[in-house]
Amino acid sequence: MGNGAESNAGGSSRGMLRSYVGGRWQQGTGDGAAVCDAVTGAEVARVSSDGIDMAAALDHGRRTGGPALRELTFHQRAALLKALGSHLREHRDELYALSARTGATRGDSKFDVDGGIGVLLAYGSKGKRELPNDTVYVEGDVEPLGKGGTFVARHVATPLRGVAVQINAFNFPVWGPLEKLAPAFLAGMPSLIKPASQTAYLTEKLVELIVESGILPEGAVQLVCGSAGDLLDHVTEQDVVSFTGSADTARKLRSHPAIVRNAVRFNAEADSLNCSILGPDATPGTAEFDLYVDQLVTEMTVKAGQKCTAIRRAFVPAALLDDVAGAVRQRLAAVTVGDPAGADMGALASLEQREEVRRSLKALQGAATVLFGDPEHVDVAGADAERGAFLSPVLLSGDPERAEPHEVEAFGPVSTLLPYTSTDQVVDYAARGKGSLAGSVVTGDKDFAREVVLGAAPWHGRLLVLDADDARESTGHGSPMPQLVHGGPGRAGGGEEMGGIRGVLHHMQRTAVQGSPAVLAAVTGRWTPGAPRTETDVHPFRKSLAELRVGDAVVAGPRTVTAEDVAHFAEFTGDTFYAHTDEAAAAENPLFGGIVAHGYLVVSLAAGLFVSPEPGPVLANYGLENLRFLTPVKPGDALTVTLTCKQITPREGADYGEVCWDADVTNADGDSVAKYDVLTLVSKEAR
């Protein structure tokens, strides 16, 4: 990437922010709109997307970015994500410097920048660990569709042939784009990033660093700064649209004619009235009480409360309301507001955003009283209180029976304490938010935690139970994790971002493929039971990855199991379960009707049959999967094992790969007594 790039740095105050579309940097036409420093009010740049051909940008992603990504395997894409994460980590200071202009403190900047980079690295690791080194993802087991085994089916997932369009909010100009980019890229879909204008200069710098790195294929990432214009008019059934922002805007976008007409996949992560619940056991002096207070203050002040996961409703037992209020007020009184370089809490993203928060506070004050802070005044350290978008943290005490606390969100450093008197009542109150991204329960009472979690779960995308045991390692109430779904039902948008491999599959089409075992093996690249096997004079364990083929097999045996084998195995291992050692008791067992061999003895004997003992390409056996014992084995039974190469996964950057072998152990009647997968590490070349 990077052809046609201009020299001016992202976020420069020298003019118009640039868009990166069609493989080159472009500026919008016209005067554009001013983008201002949240701390000083000075103009940072101007932004306009006028003159940007949105249809051409999408076409470039589909025709250039998509094919380049689909040529790569999951592991190759994962490696590029890791490389990009490492590259951005080396340039964090450049991003931190611009982030300060959004009103973010150094800690806020790290939360945004390092959090986004962490998503890239996490998906890089998950892609290598959980996805095949292939271009197709096979999901679930083989589904038999006929009695004879000649007609079967399997689900496969392939990347959509469109563009992942992301429309982001102003509060996380780095994390927001990267958390959407990572799963889409790993799936094989190019992305088009449309940041919120208030902080677009930071996203522009992020994309500049990505483009200049040359790590990603051309067309994999594009950027449009300014209005979305007619962008959504050009989306097709193969595109994906992901939105982060207000619930009202999410509803409007979801009903866009092109999205409705083409049934475009639409993922929304909207604002929500997230809650935190203090358990009745968490009285002053307990670790959980202190954790609750600390977490609430943190959620109010990090990013000046401008987090879609921040705690808006703080439910506390009625008897503890005054204690919690006093402790939170004391903590908030120590918070300094001002220049992000030295203060505990910086500015909101813009003066317009501050006015929006003040309007929401007026609505909330109809059902609540102010316990701390003045919405109209704040003492500011090192900056101008009026030119900068500064606001005092505001703690309210409200009536949970009123609608306002459950319907009005002040998207800033604002939270409302709400009392409750029973578990059922607080679960009901939590549900009145009509869908939340995140909630937390702070308690040392496991029974209370269970009741609240199971009661509130239908209205939440994520629930944290915080106590003295997990506090040291907990990432906190408001931190989305790449491994977990980030989204929520109802008001929260009804979507899911990230969520590990779930996030990847959101950008892929799941297709049920029906056919013969041989056809399914060819389509999926995995041997399917019933497909042909290839037996040669060369033992499969003597073949390197370069020589080995899916379907290569060896049949070994028979090996007769004796009573002496069973007795010796019981004595040697200490597994003297009665079914292996006590003839009379075993005879009474309705499943066995007499002495049977240990399941692990069967597996051990099978290994002795199929192993090739000499040094060679097979480096190690590193596990078994899906082991099932199907038919009891009795002394006198003769065992045969059929071992078939099921899947070959070369490792990127290593001289070996993984081979999964299908093992089927049968008795003299041909009945399977055990089935499982053997996992080995095999050299890529002959040794």
TrEMBL record:
Record domain MaoC-like: where: 553-651
UniProt keyword terms in alphabetical order: Oxidoreductase
SUPFAM superfamilies: ALDH-like, Thioesterase/thiol ester dehydrase-isomerase
Region entry Disordered, spans: 473-493
Signal peptide extent: none
Ranges of residues in domain Aldehyde dehydrogenase: 25-452
One Pfam family cited in the UniProt record for this chain: MaoC_dehydratas
Family membership noted in the UniProt record: Belongs to the enoyl-CoA hydratase/isomerase family.
NCBIfam families the UniProt entry points to: PaaN-DH, PRK11903.1
Protein name: Phenylacetic acid degradation bifunctional protein PaaZ
Naturally occurring in which organism (per UniProt): Prauserella halophila
UniProt lineage: Bacteria, Bacillati, Actinomycetota, Actinomycetes, Pseudonocardiales
